[in-house]
Each structure stands twice: as C-alpha cells, then as structure tokens.
Amino acid sequence: MTSSTITLTAADGFRCAAYVSEPPHAPKGAVVVLQEIFGVNSHIRGVADRFALAGYLAIAPATFDRVEPGVQLGYAPEDQKRGAALKAAVQALPAPGVLQDIQAAVDFAARAGKVGIVGYCWGGLLVWRSAEQLKGLAAAVAYYGGGMTVGDEPARKPKVPTMAHFGDLDAHITVDSVKAFEQAHPEVEVHLYAANHGFNCDQRGAWNPGAAAAALERTLFHFGKHVG
C-alpha cells in the first residue's frame, strides 16, 4: 500500500488537495472518502488506508480547502467549534460549491473502475447529496450524516444504491428522524446501532469498536456488490 497527496482541479478551476491511498495490488474499484468537520486528519487518512487494504483505490478530497486549506483538527471542544465554523462557511458557498471538488475526486478515482463514496458526520451529509447530484458513482454509504434526516434533505432521491449508518444514542440525529427517513426511503439500506455520534472514529470518546466493525463489514459488502 502506498499513499500520496495530490491536487484535484474542479470544473470551475478551483484546485484542492486530496489524500490518495493505493492498494497493494491492482484495484478492484475505488472509494471516495469524505471527511468529518475535522479535515483530512490522521483518522480520515487511516479510513482511506483501510479501504486501500480492502483492495480499493481510496481518495479523500480536502473539502474545507475552498475556505481554508490544510485543515487537520483533533477532537477537543475547541476543534469541534472551529470545525463547525468551517463547515458553515463551506455550506454557505454558492451551489454547487464543494460538490465540484467531490466530483473531481470521483473523476480521478474512475481510473480504477467503478466508484463508491463513503462519508462520516458532515461527510455523510455530503454523500447523501452526492448520491443524488454527482455523475460516475456506483454506490454510496453515509455514516451518521448530520442533517440528512431533517429539513429538505430527506426529499433527495439517490441515483445509486445507498446505505446509511446511524447510532441510537446520537444527540445530533434523533431516532425518530432516522425512522422517518427510513420510511421515506425504502430503497436505502438503513442500519441503527446502539452507539453514539462518531462511533466509527477510534480517536473520539464515542468510538464503539463493535458498531464500527459491523458497519464496516456491511459497507464493504455493499461496495463489493456494487463497486467490485
């Protein structure tokens, strides 16, 4: 397995960084990994590496670069506050905003075959939007996508097979909203775990190894079925 940082060029000419992790053998497809509100930090790079070890070309675009390049935060309260402000700034960009950078990552990844997309926290919300709006995707997986179960977001119609993971202890995403989302989207494979927001991240207090392992197994099965 080898890794590097590359520069992607979006349709509007904006250039953003992306972390690329390549599998030890010829890739069976590709996975775009979308960050939390903490940047392409060591955790997200580790997630990309894990998908590379599973046989996929993995790429994690820096989705904060349009407002601040090179962001890598930890998980302390001050990091949470800064990450939330950066997310708000990106969300306030004129459409299509950061989706252009994600599209550039999908286009780059397509050299490895079919492309799946996975995201965590804010990245989960971006996955939900990408599944509806981007071209070239074969499958999508959202982990505790903040906001995807409320407001106008549930009205979206994903174009590709989509899976969503949630925790029933998540103070940010209510179980009721997850149940309503599941009813509105019978085509989406929804899984609910006895876990908190951020349960996949081994650098957070919310880390739940059992839930993380089960979600990863399901995610890899989903990608194996639809990506390669």
How would you describe the overall organization of this protein?
The protein has 228 residues and is of the alpha/beta class. The protein has a single domain (2-226), classed as Rossmann fold, CATH 3.40.50. The protein is 34% helix and 21% strand. It contains 6 helices and 8 strands. An 8-stranded mixed sheet has the order 1-2-4-3-5-6-7-8, with helices on both faces. Strand 5 (115-120), helix 4 (122-133) and strand 6 (139-143) form a beta-alpha-beta unit. The longest helix has 18 residues, at 209-226. It starts with a strand and ends with a helix. The mean pLDDT is 98.
Write a brief caption for the model.
The protein has six helices and eight strands.
Topology of this protein?
Blueprint: E1 2-9, E2 15-22, E3 30-34, H1 42-53, E4 57-61, H2 77-91, H3 99-109, E5 115-120, H4 122-133, E6 139-143, E7 162-167, H5 175-184, E8 189-193, H6 209-226
Parallel strand pairs: 3-4, 3-5, 5-6, 6-7, 7-8
Antiparallel strand pairs: 1-2, 2-4
Low-confidence stretches at least 5 residues in length (pLDDT < 50)?
A: none
**Gyration radius, to the nearest Å?**
16 Å
Sequence of secondary-structure elements: EEEHEHHEHEEHEH
Helix content: 25-40%
Total strand segments: 8
Q: Quote the beta fraction.
A: 15-25%
Distance between the termini: 18 Å
Q: What is the CATH architecture term?
A: 3-Layer(aba) Sandwich
CATH class: Alpha Beta
Structure annotation, total helices? 6
CATH superfamily: Alpha/Beta hydrolase fold, catalytic domain
Number of domains: 1
Largest sheet: 8 strands, mixed
What gross morphology would you assign?
globular
**Could you give the order of strands across the largest sheet?**
1-2-4-3-5-6-7-8
Instruction: Fill in the CATH topology.
Output: Rossmann fold
Class of secondary structure makeup = alpha/beta
Task: Look at the structure and give the mean pLDDT.
Answer: 98
